[in-house]
Amino acid sequence: MKCRVCREPAIIDIRRHNANFCEEHFLRLCRDQVTKAIDAFSMITPDERCLVAVSGGKDSLAVWDILLDLGYQVDGLYLGLGIGDYSDESARYAREYAESRGATLIEVSLPRTYGFDIPNGSRAAKRKPCSACGLSKRHLFDQAAIAGRYDVVATGHNLDDEAAVLFGNVLHWQTDYLGRQLPVLPARDGFPRKIKPLVRLGEREMAAYCVVKGIDYIVDECPMAKGNKHIGYKEALNAIEATSAGAKHSFYFGFLDRASERFQAEAEADQAELTPCIECGSPTSTEVCAFCRLVTRAGGHLPEGDHDIRLDAWFGDHRHVEPVLDDAYPDPDPDPDPDPDVGAGADDAIAVDLSPTRRTPKDVRA
Ligand code: AMP
Ligand code: FES
Ligand code: ZN
Ligand code: ZN
After folding, report:
1. Do 68 and 74 touch, CB atoms closer than 8 A?
2. pLDDT per residue over 248-273, tens digit each?
3. DSSP line for 99-158
C-alpha cells in the first residue's frame, strides 16, 4: 500500500478518496480538507477570534489542533457536565492538550455554576440525558462566546455526525430542522457564528489524525448516550458506506448542494418569532427559554446576580458586557427524536485498536 502523493509506504487508506496516504500526506490531507470547508462556506478569517468547544474526544481536539496549525486564533471551551468519571477524564484530556500547545482552555462547570448535573438533573426534569445535555451545551457555548467576545464558535462535528443527523431528519421529515442543517450558521442577534470545520472528514480519519499527531483523547463514549437513535443511524450509514464508498459524503454534500435551500424559508420563519427570555434574555419562542426551564426543573439555579455579574464569575475582568443571550439561533444538531444532540463517536469503522495505550502511527495502518 503506497501513498498516493509520494509513493512511500502508506499508513491509511481512505476508500471514498480511493487513495492511501503516508503520515505526512495524511496530515496534509486533513488540513487541506479543513481549509476547503472553511473556504467553501466562508467559515472564519485569520483576524477573527474562535472558541472551539472541546469535549476531550478525538474530533474536537483534532479540530482545535488543525485550526491552530492553520494559524487561526483559537481558544478552547470545556463544559463540565457532571457525568461522573467520564467528565473527570474528558476534562483531563482537554487540559492536557491545551497545556501541550500552550493554548487557553476556558472551563465552565454545569454543577458548580447552575447547581445540577446531567444524570440527576435530567432525571428530575424528566428529560432524556442527551436532550438535557444538548440543550445545556448550546446555551453555554453561546453564553461563553458572548462573554469572551469570540466571533465564532467551532465544534468537532464530522461528516459521520452530520450525515447521521441528516439521516434522522429525513427519516422523520423534520423540514424545519433540515433548513438549519448547515456547516455554518451565521451570527445573529449578537450571537457568534457557528462553524463545523470537520464536515469533509470522517470519524475514522479523525481518530487516525489524533494517533498520528500523538494527541491523547477520551476513547469511551459518554455513558449516558448508549443505545440512542443517533448511534443507530451512524451504524446504518456505516453499513451502507461499507458497500458503497463515498455514500455518506454524497448524501450530505448532495443535500447541501441540491436540497437544503428548499427548507430555509421554513427555518427562517421560525426564527422571526423569537422574543427575549424573561429570565436570561435569550431569544426564545416561549416566555422562559428552554435552558432556564431546564435549570428550574432539574433542581438547579441560575447564578446569583444579573447577567453581567454571572459573566464576571466566569471570565473575571475581561468580560464583555452585553445582554446574555443563549438559544438565539437554531440547534446546530437538530434531531427529531427524543434524544437530540447526541453524537458520541462510535469508532466501529476503525479496523485497528486506537485505545490510548496503543497509539503509534503503525496502529492506523489499514
Ligand atoms: P457530541 O454531541 O458529544 O457529539 O459533541 C459534538 C461537539 O460538541 C463536539 O465535537 C464538541 O465540539 C462539542 N462538545 C461536546 N461535549 C462537550 C463538552 N463537554 N464541552 C465542550 N464541548 C463539547
Ligand atoms: Fe451529553 Fe452524554 S449526555 S455527552
Ligand atoms: Zn506521502
Ligand atoms: Zn433563559
Report:
1. yes
2. 999 999 999 999 999 988 877 766 66
3. HHHT--EEEEEHHHHHS--HHHHHHHHT--HHHHHHHHHHHHHHHHHHHTT-SEEE---B
Ligand 2 atom nearest to CA at 118 = 3
40 C-alpha to ligand 2 centroid (Å):
31
- Letter for the amino acid at 90? S
**CA 132: distance to chain centroid?**
16
H runs (alpha helix) in the chain = 23-40, 58-69, 84-101, 110-114, 118-125, 129-147, 159-171, 175-178, 203-213, 229-243, 247-258, 264-272, 290-297, 307-315
Q: Can you say how many angstroms the Cα of residue 338 is from the centroid of all Cα atoms in its chain?
A: 19
Q: Which of 54, 78, 130, 226 maximizes ligand 2 atoms within 8 Å of its Cβ, making it the mutation to test the pocket?
A: 130
Interior CA angle at 66 toward 63 and 72, to 5°? 100
Strand partners, 283: 276
Query: Which residue among 79, 90, 118 is best mutated to probe the pocket of ligand 2, counting the most ligand atoms within 8 A of its Cβ?
Result: 118
Write down the domain spans for the chain.
12-364
Residues lining ligand 2, CB < 6 A?
81, 118, 129-130, 133, 222, 224-225
Distance (Å, rounded) from C-alpha 67 to C-alpha 126?
38
12-364: CATH, from 3.40.50.620, 2.60.40.10, 2.40.30.100, 3.40.50.170 = 3.40.50.620
Low-confidence spans in the chain with pLDDT less than 50: 308-366
- Please report the pLDDT score of residue 231 as a whole number: 92
